[in-house]
Amino acid sequence: MLALFCFTMFSVVSQWRDLATAPEKTFIEGRVVIAAPLLLLLFGGDRFLAANLETMRLAATGMDLGQADTGYLMRAQQVVAELNPCHEDNYYLANGLLTWGGAAREGTEVLRRASACRFWDELPPFFYGFNKFFFERDKVAAAKYLELAAQRATDNAAGFRKFAIMIQVEDIQDERVALEFLRNERDQAKDPRLKDMLAKRAVRLEGLVALREAQRQYEKLQDKPLQAPQQLLDMGLLEAFPEDPLRLGYEFIDGRFMLKKLKVAGVEDR
């Protein structure tokens, strides 16, 4: 009888809670972050132990109710970077939670410290270079750190170095000058994988040069802007549209031929 009574009460309370008004949304309040010198004092001068425990704390408490407490993470991860800039979990978390969570400058600062400290690790300079290019459009810093990642890398060296070279190529406005620069880099490359990567991109850029040159000839002969790429074929200025070895192709936007790029949904507006 007691068990039946308890079960009945449990059922009544459960049904009542389902019908009750949903509670108001709870917002994350700021959390305390202890300064690095004080943490060092509390842990007897062991900065590695202090950094480890603080990283575990921020990993466990940085997310609440499906939301990231970005303000807390910014302060906490910078403190860990002061205690031990080599901390692997800290730079991983900073790249994932801060850089891609709306705090790119704070996240890249943690990565910058890790790049200087972890002189054997290719990932911090790669993440730093990628973020500098993607979020801040700082192509000089991006190319520098991608080259640093390539110097440290083993299997990924060709990919990192190709990325750094293509950032420099993209920054050259004249496509013919960019093609000449790319050909020089291809010819100087000693890594067969890098040489093959650059060769394909050189062929792709040659196609763009051919399209733009045909457009210039058309507009000179017709004394009017090109309206559609098909007109180049109709006038015999091109026998066929160039093929892209990367299979991305080209596009005609606002009266100008461009290299077609991969577009990632939800990321292009960043």
Can you tell me the overall shape? extended
Low-confidence stretches: 266-270
Secondary-structure element string: HHHEEHHHHHHHHHEE
Mean pLDDT: 86
Share of residues in helices: 55-70%
Span between termini:
64 Å
- Radius of gyration, in Å, reads 28 Å
Number of helices: 12
User: Structural class per helix/strand content?
Assistant: mainly alpha
Main sheet properties:
2 strands, antiparallel
Query: Strand arrangement, largest sheet?
Result: 1-2
Number of extended strands: 4
Assembly classification? single chain
Strand percentage: under 5%
Please tell me about this protein's structure.
This protein is mainly alpha-helical and 270 residues long. Among the domains are: 36-118; 196-270, no CATH class. The chain is 63% helix and 4% strand. It is built from twelve helices and four strands. The strands form two sheets. The protein has a two-stranded antiparallel ribbon with strand order 1-2. Strand 3 (250-253) and strand 4 (256-259) form a beta hairpin. Helix 4 runs antiparallel to helix 5, helix 6 (104-117) runs antiparallel to helix 7 (123-134) and helix 10 runs antiparallel to helix 11 (192-222). The N and C termini lie far apart (64 Å).
